[in-house]
Target: Multiple sugar transport system permease protein
Amino acid sequence: MSIPETAASVRPAPTGPTVPTPRRSPRARGPRGGRRAERLAPYVLLAPALLILLLLRFWPLLLGVNFSFTGDGDRDGLAVGLDNYRELFGDPLFRGALRNVGLLVLLLPVAVAIPGLLATFIYLRVPGNRLYRSVYFFPAVLSPVIVGAIFNLLLAFDGPLNALLGGVGIGPVDWLGDPDLAMFVVVGVHVWATFGMALVVFLAGFATLDASLLDAARVDGASLPQTIRHVIVPSLSRTIQFVVVTTMIGMLTSMFGLLYVMTSGGPEGSTYLPEYYIWIQQGQMNRPALASAASTVLFLIMLVVGLVQISLLRRTVREA
Model:
């Protein structure tokens, strides 16, 4: 006996190949959530570094600025307004330190051009370029105290340099005792001791330089100065900006060791810099609030000088 077929049990035969229905993955179900995670990922990765900067840099900076408005000695902890800043700018030693900052700004192009030109010669593979790379970087690994002690011996009034000058008929020069000369000598020693690091940064920038641009300049008959101005400088604009800012910061904040060993701020206070003045006020005079005010002024100087230099460099690169 046959069982009658119902309409539900009868299925039409497929007329073509069947296509499986794709399953939606969890990510496909929430595209907005995936995009949100991608947007937040950089902030999550930067959060630890930003937290360290906030706790170890910005927060102490704010505390120092706040401390600069308090008093020293009998007025310790009391709010004194701008009294510390008035005393700062009335102090001849601090005004001399600010003049020396202006001298550093004027000498900065020389401090940047020296490693830049040497890196250019090394990149163009002058004979012995590998040896030069090691020799130029070697002073960067020496302690400022060691460098200062070495040059104290070389530049002494009865030292080897004056003996060499005497052999050619030039009288002895008081390199570190002349107020008009001592600061230039210390800055020159600092540049010699530190330009190796800037040289490495320039060489890293040259690694990203398009060699075809140099080949095109050579084919067009461009001289070396023209190649540097129209090809190398525009191509390394970011590297130059970085070296300028870091070199300026180093000259303002990393010369204490040389100053302490070579001149101790003399002669007649002619080699004072803000960082040395800060150490004198904090370490010898026991005036931390005044030292905090000087630190705040130094920070503002570095900020303004850095921004102005970056602006000028960008304008120069656009013109080149």
